Structures are given as C-alpha cells and as structure tokens.
Amino acid sequence: MTDFTMTRRHFGLLAAGVAASAAFPFSVRAAAGETAIAATFPGNWEDGYRTVLTPLVKEAGYDLTIAPSMAQDQLAKVMASPGNPPYDTLLMSPGQMAIALENDLIQKIDPSRLKNWGMLDPAFQGEYGPTVTIEVNGIAYNPDMVPKPKGYRDLFENPAYSGKVSWTGFASNTAVMAYTEMAKIFGSGPSDMAAVFKLFKDHPEHLKGVVDSTNHQMTLFQQGEIAVFMCSTGNVARLKSLGMNAEFVQPETGSPAAPVNIHLTKGAKNLDAAYAYMDAAISKAAQDALKMPPTEMFPTNKDVALTPEIEAYVTRDQLAKMVYPDWAEINKNRPDWIRQFDALVAG
Amino acid sequence: MKASGFPYVIPMLLLSVAFFATPLAVLVGFSFIGSEGATLANYIRFFGDAFNFRVLVNTARLGLETVVGTTLLGVPIALLYWHSGKTTRQVIIFLTLIPMLTSNVVRTFAWIVILGRQGPISETLMALGVTGSPTSLMFTELGLVMAMCQIDLPLIILPLIAILSRTPVQFSEAAQVSGAGPWRIFVTVLLPLMLPGLLAGWILVFASTSSSFVTQAVIGGARNVYVPQLIYREVGTLFDWPMASAIAVVLLLSTGCLLVAMTMISRHRRLVGHA
C-alpha cells in the first residue's frame, strides 16, 4: 500500500477546496435574491412569523430569516452596531419606537412599495412602518386554582390570590402598562409609582412571585407554580393551545393596549426583501392565518374578519376604548422605576 | 546552539492580544466613559449604592456555596472512580459527560419541575411527613444552589478524575498498611494529591456559577439578584454601557481576587507539605 504524505501544497489545496465548497451555497443564495433579517419577539411571534410569512416572502422572490429578540434587546443590538444593523426590520411597540427615533435607528418607509398598504386602517399606517397587530393586555388566570379576578385591586385585596400572582420588572412592556394602571388606581395618576411600590411593600407575598419575563411566567403557569400573571391575549392563546386551563380577563378599569409595528432599520442592507416581508405581514393571507390559534393575533387588515375567539377578547369597536399609555412619560421615568423596583424586590 | 522557541509562540500571542487583551482593554476603557469625558463616576455610582454592593456579595456567596456543594458531591464520586474497575469507571465517565452534552437551558428548565410544588422533592418531603403541604424551592437560594451544583458537577469531577487516574491506588494501601485510618489517609495522602484537581475544579465552578445568567434568572427569580443580571439590565434595558462595563470590571476583579485567594490557600505549606 502506498503511504500518503500530506504536504503543505496538499493542505493548501484542501483548505481552498473546503472554503470554496462552504461558500457555494451562499453564492447560489445571493444569486436567487435577498434575505430579509427580521427581528421578532420570541415564542408565539417567532413560530407564527416563521411558519406563515416565510412562504409568502419566498413567493415574492426573497428569503426571510426570523431572528427572535425582545424589543429592548433589539434596540440594544442595533445601538451596538451603528450604521451596520444586525436586522433589516425591527418589531416594536410605541415605547421602544420612541427610543429608536431618539437614537436615529429607524427610517421612514415608502408606502408605495407595499401592495397591501391600502388594506390598513389609517390609524395603522405609520410613517415609520405598518401596525401588524394590537396587543391587548389584561390578566391571565387558572380557573382551577383561583376565582376570576375583577381587576388589579382584587389581586391585592382578595386573599384567594395571596402567593399565587406573579409579576415582572419594569423592563417588560406588559408589566409597565399594568403598573401605570395600578398607579392610577392606588395613586394619583399613571406616573405615581411610589404608590405602586408602597402597595408591594404592604403585600410582600406578591414580591415572592416576581420573575424576569412573561416567558418565564408561562413556564411557571404550566407547572402550577403560579395561577395569575399580567399578560397579552397572545400569551393566553398560547397556553390554551398547549392544553392549559388558562383564561383572559380584561381588568374592570380597562385593558392597556399597544400597537405592534414593523420598522425599517437605518442602514438596512436588504431593502427589497424587507419591504416584501412587511407587505406579507399585513397581507390578508398572513393575517387570516395569524388570527387562528395558537397565535390569535388581532388583524389590522380591514379585509380580515375577526374570529369568535378574538371577539371574546376584543372587537374592532372596542379598540378605541382600550387604554393607550403615554410612552414618552414612561420612557422618561423607566430607568428610575427599574432600579427602584429591583432594589425593592431584592429586599 | 539550540534554536529559540519564541517564533512559534508569536501566533498564539497575536491571537491572545486580538481576542482577549484588546476586548478587555475596550471594556475597561468603556467603564471610564462619562458624559463629559473620562471619569470615575460609574465606579462611584456602583459602590455608592448599597444595593449593588449587596448584589456583588450575593454573587460571591452563590459561587462559594456551589463550590462547597460540588466539592462534597464530586470528591466521593472521584474516589469511587479511583477505587473501581474498568466497567464502573466507564459508567461514571458516561454519567458525568452526558449532562454536559445537554444545554444548560434545558437542564435549568428541568430543575423547575424538580424544585416545584408538584416536584419530586416536595412530594418526598410530604411523604416523609417533613412538610404538611406542597413546598416550592423555586426562587430560593437553596434551590438555585442545588441546580447549580448539578449543572456544574462535571466541572469538578473531571479534573479530579484526571489527577487520580495518574495516581496508583497503592498509595492509600501503603498508608493503610502503615496503620493510618481512613480519615487520616484522606487528609494526609489523598487531599494533598487531589489539590491541583480541586483547585482547577473550584476555579471552573466558581467562574461558571457566578456568571450563569440563565439559571440565576430562571431558578433564582427576580428576588435573588446577581451581578450578571445587573449587567444585562444596564445593557439591554437601560442602555447604559459605561455603567455595565464598570460592573463587569468589578465582577472580573472581585472574582479574580477570590481565585487568587483560593490558589494561595491550596498552596499553603501545611496542606501541600504532606504530599
């Protein structure tokens, strides 16, 4: 048998071959069209957008990469690489959008590039991107473990909820909207957070269930560790789809709501693909699919009829009556609230 | 004349400078940035807040508790390996490595089930009559230390096994023949022999535990705050990178001090002198 000796020339040729073969799929992909890198929220959003939008964007001749990331994390990552954003589009509520605008991270869109733009109500046609859904917030509860809560006050005054309610910190949009509502109920107005902090001090049993995010709360809910948490309708739809006995209740003082928008990042490299993704997200085909379980997203496309399940949460007429927080005021106070709440929770 | 080996070290030096020293220098540089140029304000703000100092102490305590826990669990397993035959050794190695092939995130979420109200710990305590109602160890430091001990156990077992594999079993037999009891054999013969492995394990376990963001956040909840969560909050929520860098530098220095202390203890003459 002939011995084989690896020379430097052989090694060089081999390395070049490996590099060329590794690069081949990318060159083929580049020839086929652009790929939009779209940041979406993890969990339900990630699954829904990947499943429903990828084929629609493909039909338009582009690829789509769904990158799961919380809105605050999206901001942090885009800020970390100015001029070279890791995402072509961002998915955000008005609170984060205000920060993105302040830091010059997003750009105005050209609506003429979106075929489905006219299908949106004018309220959903933002100059910085379309609104793809309205997240309606409230209280999730397990009917096997606790009675139906009337609202935030009930959670603190009815002993049936003692030790069974979970909260998150002020970094979460869902939490901050609940806390501003509680500040109205227990204090002098939405920014009177001292009243909310006092409430938690007076009810230390509520501090035991404070965790980092709504995603953790959903895991704990599944395990029977908690029975109540502040949520969006999407969280409850997801839990139901997993076979959990979870119900959504609108607080008696009103449901806080937040539009969710797709934004184009400043310096986005794949503009055509990004527009194709945006257009797919507001299309009838996509929203008809995303309104079904387990996502049950409220459709912003006028041609999409609401399902009975979504109408049980909120109807189109009720949208105007939802509570839309003052995000400028929240953003101004948020860092201080975060630090104060963390110190309070840690005791 | 023997050729100098220095040229062969150059690639490694360049890599270290590019991927370790430079990012570290950037991190340190960032920590001194203020609104009006170079400043110590971030450090002053960090140490001026008693909450931050308590978080730092909590993080060090969590690391040390896990080091103690993994040592108490890991040493007997390593000694069992040392005294066992080939098959048992293979089983021990297999059982040690398998968890390492599973993601920390998965193992962390498995601990939610174990530590929860309906988990095996709670049910065992109730069956034994220790508790009258379901008990949850979630969001407690005890629960977190238990989870961290399981997750980081291989980090102490493997260095110990590496050391003991090179040590003939006859060492302990010779001490036994000389009249030493099991405890004396352990303290005067085995412990000094295992010390380098223990030291390596302690360093790995301490560093891994004190920086384990996911497990700390999920099992510890928001009530038990540790330094990695503080850094994440500054970067991801408050976007205050200079402050996050200052906290990271403080964590690095405090961890470094503890590791130096561990090294000095392990090199103490009275400990090593017996070996």
Structural notes for this entry:
The complex is a heterodimer of chains A (347) and B (275). Chain A has 347 residues and is an alpha/beta fold. Chain A has helices at 8-32, 44-59, 71-80, 94-102, 152-157, 173-186, 193-202, 214-222, 233-241, 271-281, 284-290, 308-313, 327-345; strands at 35-40, 63-68, 89-92, 106-107, 125-126, 129-141, 165-168, 210-211, 228-232, 247-249, 257-265. In chain A, the strands form 2 sheets. In chain A, strands 3, 4, 5, 6, 7, 8, 9, 10 and 11 form a 9-stranded mixed sheet that branches. In chain A, a hairpin with a 2-residue loop joins β5 and β6 (129-141). In chain A, α2 packs across α10, α2 packs antiparallel against α11 and α7 packs parallel to α13. The longest helix of chain A has 25 residues, at 8-32. The relative contact order of chain A is 0.17. Chain B is 78% helix and 1% strand. Chain B contains 13 helices and 2 strands. The radius of gyration of chain B is 23 Å and the shape is globular. Chain B starts with 5 loop residues before the first helix and ends with a helix. Chain B: The chain crosses the membrane at residues 12-33, 62-82, 91-114, 142-164, 185-205, 243-265. Chain B: This is Spermidine/putrescine transport system permease protein. Chain B: It holds the Pfam family BPD_transp_1.
- Secondary-structure element series of chain B: HEEHHHHHHHHHHHH
How many strands, what sense, and barrel or not for the largest sheet of chain B?
A: 2 strands, antiparallel
User: Beta-sheet strand percentage of chain B?
Assistant: under 5%
Net shape of chain A: globular
Number of strands of chain A: 11
Q: In terms of topology, how is this protein built?
A:
The complex is a heterodimer of chains A (347) and B (275).
Chain A: H1 8-32, E1 35-40, H2 44-59, E2 63-68, H3 71-80, E3 89-92, H4 94-102, E4 106-107, E5 125-126, E6 129-141, H5 152-157, E7 165-168, H6 173-186, H7 193-202, E8 210-211, H8 214-222, E9 228-232, H9 233-241, E10 247-249, E11 257-265, H10 271-281, H11 284-290, H12 308-313, H13 327-345
Parallel strand pairs in A: 1-2, 7-8, 7-9
Antiparallel strand pairs in A: 3-11, 4-11, 5-6, 6-9, 6-10, 6-11
Helix pairs in contact in A: 2-10, 2-11, 4-13, 6-7, 7-13
Chain B: H1 6-31, E1 33-34, E2 37-38, H2 41-48, H3 50-83, H4 86-100, H5 104-115, H6 120-127, H7 141-165, H8 170-177, H9 182-210, H10 213-220, H11 227-237, H12 241-266, H13 269-272
Antiparallel strand pairs in B: 1-2
Helix pairs in contact in B: 1-12, 3-7, 3-9, 4-7, 5-10, 7-9, 7-10, 8-9, 9-12, 11-12
